[in-house]
Amino acid sequence: MTQGFATRAIHLGYDPKDNEGALTPPLHLASTFAFETAEAGGEIFAGAREGYFYSRISNPTLDLLEQRIASLEGAEAGLALASGMGAITATLWTLLSPGDELIVDKTLYGCTFAFMNHGLAKFGIKVTHVDLSDPGNLTKAISSKTRIVYFETPANPNMRLVDIETVARVAHASGATVIVDNTYATPYITRPIDHGADIVLHSATKYLGGHGDLVAGLVVGTAEQISEIRLVGMKDMTGAVMAPFNALLVQRGLKTLALRMERHSATAIQVANWLESHPDVGVVSYPGLPSFGQHDVAQKQMSLPGGMIAFEMKGGIEAGRALMNGLTMIQRAVSLGDAETLIQHPASMTHSTYSPEERSAHGISDGLVRLSIGLEDPEDILDDLDQALSLRRVAKAV
């Protein structure tokens, strides 16, 4: 019988009896590994025998993390990398060649957007943005040269969703590989492979690590895909290797992921409802709200609405800045998924790699505020938002 999500996140792939009874898996800091014989070393290098020889390719601490994330995502294999961008670049450098087309969603994280449009595009790869919230747009845009269809769901920062199952069906009909960035949802909320995706990526810096003390990336897929990304995209093209200590920290984060995502989501729905009812707040984008434009898609592929909220302040960018500057507990910081509640302004921070014209075209307004709900008491989060908005009202009155 398959064990549950939280049980696998804590126990999979490790038995204390194999490590002198140590309850926590050991940290392997070795850069290189000794061989029993010269012949054994040659066989390991040739792939004829399993084993470790150099931590740029594999390491026992990373191997355990890779097994666990693959299991949690429902994939055959996983690969640990130095950052989320390391996971993205290693994967796409492996799978794309000059002359190929990459179809991506209308909205992407700023550094992903920059890599694709200012990086890949320089090397003869056609990058086409399509509004994938309507799968019919993909049907019109896809061609025989389309190798990959790539998207985030929910999208960073405006929370747009993509129907994974429908988009995957269209992409596969043309022979394209579907890659999903699952950072916002995590496998506890959405498992894209169950809905037809081929490869799933994460910035493990965020919810998987969960404590704001590491930078890391993960990718899962078939054993064949992951082996190719390991030996080409990671080993030779980027060198984006995760440090063993960071792998240990991500393993620690996975142990509490289920609990944390329940708490993030439970608090976020309270905050989203409160924001939606506030007279100074405009549109609130959160999958758990009945007013959310893609609520049906959220119900279809998300078990929880998650911990991320996007909203517009009435009064635009200056109103958003006034709100952020009035906060005392909630921290003005980028990143997300930490124990602390974080707030930021995408247009001037995480998505500043877009030009103003590009932000407008890709659904990232200047007045958008992104809120990552932490693990504090919900009442304290609401009190801080309330006092900051009250300060703004007083300042306007004066």
TrEMBL record:
<dbReference type="Pfam" id="PF01053">
    <property type="entry name" value="Cys_Met_Meta_PP"/>
</dbReference>
<dbReference type="InterPro" id="IPR006237">
    <property type="entry name" value="L-Met_gamma_lys"/>
</dbReference>
<dbReference type="InterPro" id="IPR015424">
    <property type="entry name" value="PyrdxlP-dep_Trfase"/>
</dbReference>
<dbReference type="InterPro" id="IPR015421">
    <property type="entry name" value="PyrdxlP-dep_Trfase_major"/>
</dbReference>
<keyword id="KW-0456">Lyase</keyword>
<dbReference type="InterPro" id="IPR054542">
    <property type="entry name" value="Cys_met_metab_PP"/>
</dbReference>
<keyword id="KW-0663">Pyridoxal phosphate</keyword>
<protein>
    <recommendedName>
        <fullName>L-methionine gamma-lyase</fullName>
        <ecNumber>4.4.1.11</ecNumber>
    </recommendedName>
</protein>
<comment type="similarity">
    <text>Belongs to the trans-sulfuration enzymes family. L-methionine gamma-lyase subfamily.</text>
</comment>
<dbReference type="GO" id="GO:0018826">
    <property type="term" value="F:methionine gamma-lyase activity"/>
</dbReference>
<dbReference type="InterPro" id="IPR000277">
    <property type="entry name" value="Cys/Met-Metab_PyrdxlP-dep_enz"/>
</dbReference>
<dbReference type="InterPro" id="IPR015422">
    <property type="entry name" value="PyrdxlP-dep_Trfase_small"/>
</dbReference>
